[in-house]
Write a structure and sequence with these properties.
The complex is a heterodimer of chains A (416) and B (158). With 416 residues, chain A is mainly α. Chain A contains 19 helices and no strands. Helices cover 77% and strands 0% of the residues of chain A. The radius of gyration of chain A is 21 Å and the shape is globular. By secondary structure, chain B is an alpha/beta fold. Chain B has a five-stranded parallel sheet, with helices on both faces. In chain B, α1 packs parallel to α3, α2 runs antiparallel to α3 and α4 runs parallel beside α5. Classes of the chains: A mainly alpha (416), B alpha/beta (158). The interface between A and B is large, with 62 and 45 residues.
């Protein structure tokens, strides 16, 4: 009874999230679903409380990073990135792509993938248009790097934040182990993009963009201080979420009196319904796992951390992420892989972070629903994205896992 | 006589130059730009992949309006460079099919090579340009957007 009920609840929550009826927030169904799971005993009250108390700091960290990114946008950081990319491009689309790769990789790593998709993509399009070059390779690069470049820091992707506790590393140790996989994944993407878009990238710009824009020094300094704060909090054993919150607070205190944002704007950037959805989804997934999914999936996953095992784990994670979405995928896979140790959890992250590049719109479920809605009926655009995904995703996945394996050997991640 | 000129980012100045050089001032010139919606769709799709976020932050709409404004500006710039009476036409859809469709009834279609421009050969046409040249319903004037490569770049006879 509890088993089938919890599965039905999870399906309802995910279906709602994909379909978004009436444009209502996902929390509208996810929060009651979590309540029902607790009421019918699919998850005990104690487990619900432990799940919520474990995830509350994660959600707080996420909110702080979302607000930080939005306030940096208000300070003009992303517009300045556009001007910087145009300057390094010197009218050559190949160099613009290099600039886009550098900026999108850093923005994703520091501000999370949301910032690259929501705040950077329009800037990149506008930059390409102002330079008079074709925008396609650069916009596709933003979409791909929002996934592939989200390996570096715990804040780069919500999946990383959710797994951070299970990895058991400090912030700095996580970043140092994931640096090599991050670079390997991005390098594969760059190599494929240069060849796939060779035609678009061979045609020099027909315009120049010489707008003088002063760098937003305050925002850059605050972000640098926040990154330093991550290192310091991590060294003294304090939750690095406080560093992100302090960074967001400093920018808010500057932006509010200058009317660059409002209190409502800041609360809206934190996206409270989304945070509630994450907590509720975690509770429902926990209920499904406790009621049998655990046993069903365990056989599919290796229980050691050899290179072959890590590759298998990453592949399973990528497939699961592509079927529904990487958020439920990571919640399902975490309890199954955590006993095998940090290498297995990091392999899951590589799978769920890079994997979504295979399917246009992140997952098969979303893709099918969008096809049904006919939000886009351009079969060739879909084919383009899928071919590019097939060329990059498996190669980037393998490169990143091999790099992880090397990184763990060099930095000693297999030991305690 | 109606001449349709396909205006594309980066290669359009060569096409405008061809209009000035090869047509008479009384020619009806159509400057055509086609926006492929797949670029905005990539932004829509990337946002759809973020489960649980508010729909109204979707950057796809912003990219769509930026694309529309960019097309408008590009055609205005091309018209200014042409310096003659002309009609600007903006279309949205599969680029190669829209261009072929717009060329129906025209007496000439002017377009530029946009592939590997370092040597003579079929590689100098990108996928969309190749399709248009192959399917054009009217005579085609195909110009080089850069000075043409030397004749000795011709592949050797097998």
């Amino acid at each position: 009874m509890a088993e089938s009920c919890s599965v039905v609840l999870l399906i309802a929550v995910l279906a709602w999230a994909v379909i978004r009826p009436f444009g209502w927030p996902e929390a509208v169904i996810a929060v009651p679903a979590a309540g029902v799971a607790a009421l019918i005993g699919a998850i005990t009250v104690a487990d619900t409380a432990s799940e919520l108390s474990k995830l509350a700091p994660v959600v707080g960290f996420l909110a702080a990073v979302l607000v930080l990114a939005q306030l940096c946008a208000a300070e003009g950081l992303f517009d300045w990135c556009g001007v910087w990319m145009a300057r390094v491009a010197h009218g050559r689309p190949g160099r613009l792509l290099l600039g886009v790769f550098a900026v999108a990789s850093l923005v994703t790593a520091v501000f999370s993938l949301d910032a690259t998709i929501v705040l950077l993509t329009p800037v990149v399009f506008a930059t390409a248009a102002r330079l008079g070059v074709r925008a396609r390779p650069h916009v596709y690069a933003c979409a791909h790097l929002s996934n592939t470049a989200s390996l570096l820091l715990p804040v780069s992707n919500l999946t990383n934040l959710l797994a951070f506790g299970a990895v058991g590393f400090s912030f700095v140790r996580f970043a140092s182990v994931m640096t090599l996989p991050w670079i390997a994944g991005i390098a594969v993407e760059y190599f494929v993009f240069r060849r796939y878009f060779a035609t678009d990238l061979s045609l020099a710009a027909s315009a120049s963009d010489a707008r003088p824009v002063a760098p937003p020094c305050f925002a850059i300094a605050t972000v640098a201080a926040t990154l330093a704060g991550f290192v310091i909090t991590s060294a003294v054993g304090v939750n690095p979420a406080w560093a992100a919150a302090a960074g967001a607070l400093v920018l808010a205190l500057r932006a509010l009196p200058r009317r660059r944002t409002t209190l409502l704007g800041i609360v809206s950037a934190a996206d409270l319904p989304f945070l509630a959805f994450v907590l509720a989804l975690a509770v429902v997934v926990r209920a499904v796992i406790d009621n049998g999914l655990d046993a069903a999936l365990r056989g599919w996953l290796p229980h050691n951390t050899t290179l072959a095992a890590l590759l298998t784990i990453a592949a399973v994670a990528a497939v699961l992420a592509n079927v529904i979405n990487n958020l439920p995928a990571v919640l399902v896979l975490l309890p199954l892989t955590a006993p095998a140790g940090a290498p297995a959890v990091l392999a899951v992250l590589i799978g769920v972070n890079i994997g979504p590049n295979l399917t246009y719109a992140g997952s098969l479920a979303t893709l099918l629903w969008r096809r049904i809605l006919r939000r886009h009926n351009h079969a060739a655009g879909l084919a383009d994205f899928t071919v590019l995904g097939l060329l990059t995703m498996p190669a980037a996945l393998v490169a990143a896992v091999v790099a992880l394996w090397l990184s763990l050997h060099v930095l000693g991640g297999y030991g305690p | 006589m109606t001449v349709v000129t396909w205006i594309v980012e980066a290669t359009w100045p060569a096409c405008v130059e061809a209009v000035r050089r090869y047509t008479t001032p009384d020619t009806d010139v159509v400057l055509l730009h086609v926006t492929d919606p797949d670029v905005a769709d990539v932004a829509h799709g990337a946002y759809a992949g973020l489960l649980g976020r508010r729909p109204r932050r979707d950057p796809g709409g912003q990219v769509e309006s930026l694309a529309s404004a960019a097309a408008h500006n590009l055609l205005d710039e091309a018209a200014a460079r042409l310096g003659r009476r002309c009609t600007n036409v903006e279309r949205t859809g599969r680029v190669e099919r829209e261009v072929v469709g717009a060329a129906g009834g025209a007496e000439l279609l002017i377009l530029a090579r946009d592939g590997e421009l370092g040597h003579l050969g079929p590689g100098s046409l990108g996928h969309a340009t190749r399709f248009i040249v192959d399917h054009a319903p009217c005579p085609v004037l195909l110009v080089w957007p850069v000075p043409p490569p030397a004749i000795d770049t011709l592949p050797t006879h097998p």
